[in-house]
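[09:14] KT: can someone run the structure on this one? pasting the chain below
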Amino acid sequence: MACPYFYPEEKWKGKLAGRAPQFPLGDFYEGACRAGDAEFRPDWDTLRERCNMGYARCQCPRFPENAGPDAVRFTIVQDREAAIALYYVIEKNHAPYQHGPLEYDRATGALRATPANAALGNQARAYVESYLRRILARAATA
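[09:31] RB: done, structure tokens below
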């Protein structure tokens, strides 16, 4: 579950110490924090412990007071030739806050309908791209 204010921009290119866990977006991402009035570039520890992992309320000084959601989860519902259907759940206090379907168009490499929340859209794209990287890696070793 990534932080709902995290705007992932690119997969982390550096090495991760030890065995890499399964990250909520599939891979570890660099990006920006969109909580507050101005975009912020988090440091490594913040990216690792809060942005990529979610549930940063009471831990992150940038987390808005009395904010709504705490984390975002995704799952692939169906992988078709032309599109990948996924579902998101935004959580608050470990319970659903908002949810819905999204669809990723394989031909364009973008969501077919852009969510009003840009961070949610970018997280969904990052999640699907991580999923596609894993699928390609499995196919290459088979």
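[09:33] KT: thanks! The CA atoms of residues 16 and 93 lie 29 Å apart.
[09:34] RB: yep, looked fine to me
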